[in-house]
Amino acid sequence: MYIDTSKTTINGKTYYRYLFRESYREDGKVKNRTLGKISKCSEEEVAAMKLALKHKKNLAALLNIEEVELHDGPRLGVVFALKALAERLGISKALGSSREGKLALWQVMARLIGDGSHPEAVRMAASYGACEVLELESFSADDLSTNLVWLTEHQERLERQLFKQNSANARQELVLEDVITMPQDKPEHVFQTFRESHPEIGPVEAGIGGQELVIMLACNIERLLSELWKECDCTVQQGIDELGAIRSTIVTIGEASCQKIPQSTGVAGKLLAAAGVTLPSTIEGKNNDAEGERQLTIKRD
What we know:
301 residues
């Protein structure tokens, strides 16, 4: 018996489905069947069930656990918030769920949280829990450089897809310069206008198209936050820094662990509410924390 989990995101809000299932063999084939639905249970209750199932052959071992270890976890709050906004804007859908797509999304987030340089983006991935939130394997600065090449190779497709999504979106949340007035079959005009109004991007040359796209997507998330937080009496950067202070707590009981995320109040709570973002209360434990940070190192020849 085990608990099967699936996650669905609709309009920037994530829903979880939990099922009790078991595997059995029939006619020499392994099959699965559902025993019950427990989606109405809280994340803490599901985590407790998973812990009990893990020790089902020796439940007495749970009674003999003398210590519960608590450690500061990564600063997940801002990454969850930016992820929700990227999904709302259609950015996540355009980039896709492949490893390269997720690396590209992290590069966009890293530019909003820090300066976006690859060495810093790698360091921040460990302290901000990027791999846990985005479900990414560890990566290096070289991987991010290769990812920019991937973005450059797919730039035209991504620009057209983002333009199409924005044109079809009645709420017009993804703001691309002069999107309303440009011909529907000419998304390149929209992006050219964006380039001209953001000289910091520089000229479009071979190899930098990916970096240009990262900056553009980061600017669009920043613009949306500016609109959502206009009544919060803070700049976008101040708001991002505030959410960046939301840390998880890693709870370890024996061999099992989970991360508890505090439900923010005060300024952080107001910022999340204004952005329409709800943080999960619990996520799976961070595996091999120290080893994970060692893996997130800069690989250079």
